[in-house]
Design a protein that fits this description.
CATH class: Alpha Beta
Number of strands: 6
Helix content: 25-40%
Largest sheet: 6 strands, mixed
Structural class: alpha+beta
Strand content: 25-35%
Number of helices: 3
CATH topology: Conserved Hypothetical Protein Mth637, Chain: A
Radius of gyration: 16 Å
Distance between the termini: 38 Å
Order of helices and strands: HEEEEHEEH
CATH superfamily: YggU-like
Length: 111
């Protein structure tokens, strides 16, 4: 029994949960970007963030623009609705999307 409880605690601590925060007319969530990949894709959850691989290099804001374009394509929204709130020069970013509900983001990211 002790072994089962211990294994359950290890499993639970390894499980990642994406945190999507919803406000009146926008949502925010964290993204972990891996630039210079072979293709643009969502890889899963990294801590409490979505891990996204991008072909864009991390130079002169190209990866940020690539991320906005990629998210706009997946969510089928305009690029103007997406804003990088923090992490412009980091792999870890906080994204704000206006005019969308939390459920829509969860649905699109599952596909």
């Amino acid at each position: 029994m002790l072994i089962c409880v211990y294994l359950w605690l290890i499993f639970k601590s390894k499980c990642a949960v994406l945190k999507i925060r919803e406000a009146e007319n926008y949502v925010t969530f964290s993204v972990r970007v891996q630039p210079r990949s072979s293709r643009n894709e969502i890889c899963g959850i990294y801590g409490d963030a979505i891990k996204i691989k991008l072909t864009s290099p991390p130079v002169e804001g190209e990866a940020n623009e690539g991320l906005i374009k990629f998210l706009a394509g997946i969510l089928k929204i305009s690029k103007g609705q997406i804003e990088i709130i923090s992490g412009q020069k980091s792999k870890s970013k906080l994204i704000k999307i206006r005019g969308i509900k939390k459920e829509r983001i969860e649905e699109c990211l599952k596909q």
